[in-house]
Amino acid sequence: MSWLLALASFGYAVASTFGAWTVVHRHRGLAFTFLGAAAVLTVGGVVVAYRMPESWMFLAAGSAAGSFASLWNARRVLRRVVVRNHVARALGGLALTLLAAWRF
User: Cα(first)–Cα(last) distance of the chain, in Å?
Assistant: First the structure.
């Protein structure tokens, strides 16, 4: 179970890295927010893989930062917010966090 959580965390980090790549030349602050979320999610995935009880904190922080960056990107760059996409992303991060908290 912990390896599945780690893979999901790494996948979420890849999505945030892709978000940073798409906006790095236009909005550096937004790109660094995406990269920060990806870094925290990567550390969270490693912490989950080692089955440490603090893993849920890293996943919560990375998921929250990723969701914030995604919403910021939709408002600032795309100028169109599709609410269901952001709710789905936030619920995915919440599920990842709750599974890690429940697992340890």
Answer: 11
Tokens of 77: 């760059």
Please, how many CA atoms are within 13 Å of residue 103, restricted to the half-sphere of its CB? 24
Q: What does the pLDDT look like over 11-62, one tens digit per residue?
A: 999 999 999 999 999 999 999 999 999 999 999 999 999 999 999 999 999 9
CA distance 2 to 74: 32
> Domain total for the chain?
1
Closest CA to 11 of 83, 94, 69, 96: 96
What is the extent of the structural domain holding 14? 2-103
Judge whether 30 and 72 are in contact, CB under 8 Å.
yes
pTM exceeding 0.85: yes
